[in-house]
Amino acid sequence: MRRLKLAILVVLALFVVYGGGSWYIASQATRAERELPGQTPGSVGLRYQGVDFASRDDGVTLNGWYINSEHPKGAVIIVHGLDANKADKGTGILQLARRLHDQGMAVFLFDLRGHGESGEGKLSGGQFEQRDLLGAFDWLVGNGVAPDKIGLLGLSLGGAIALMSAAQEPRLQAVVADSAFADLSDLTATEVAKRLAIPYWLSRSLNPGVTLAAQAVYGIDLRSVSPEEAIARLPYPVLLIHSRTDGRISYDNAVRLKSASRNPDTVLWTVDKAEHAKSFVSYPDEYVQRVTGYFENRWK
Q1: Model confidence, pTM
Q2: Phi and psi (nearest 5°) for 267?
Q3: Domain limits for position 125
Q4: Tens of pLDDT along 142-184?
Q5: Total structural domains in the chain?
């Protein structure tokens, strides 16, 4: 009987430790590292309008910059990545906005919830952040931009958000996904280990508990975040960009996304040597040429 009681106590203790560890990791992994933009579009010679708008459905207050053009061919919404902001230096967002504007495009930059100058919100791997991007889309449409002249350009997490948002909003007809992941469930253990500086084996062993804790406490269903499923619902061609040497989100994610697309004209531009989400930084001229060519073709 004593052995049975001891065994029960050990099981309960393990359950408490596992559950507590899972809850703690979920609480930390769903919090973005906020960094305020260090520059504005004015830093690269662009005139812009500061914008506050609401995310679709849940009304989180978001902050953005709208860079208009005299006779724009269309408007591009650029979506930054994890722990970044609308002026992210690492991926050269402001320089990219400058180059796209020079090609006759309006550009809308904004901070996702919990990032930059936007309102608070849990990091959900793209589940809730889709509402932010769709709120930006709604703002543009409400300010006179034709829905079929709006394109999305997402970097890393932003690329995943762009694909999933487009699958929700049929009026969107143009998406560029740069360095996006295919399915969050395949990436969770690796990202948690990196963000919290814990061993991968520990993160992987706690992954089921973290998934349950995120769902139970925050309403975040990590298993539902699948850009791979989203791209399969898009009838039009998508431009995918990924570096073969990406050390954070492996190149096979892009191959999976390309295979999942049901449009034979979807293109995967493979960059031979670039860091994660830095293809524009490494190959700016070809990047702009491919991106503008794609958008102009979709906006005909």
Answers
A1: 0.86
A2: -115, 135
A3: 35-183+225-298
A4: 999 999 999 999 999 999 999 999 999 999 999 999 999 999 8
A5: 2
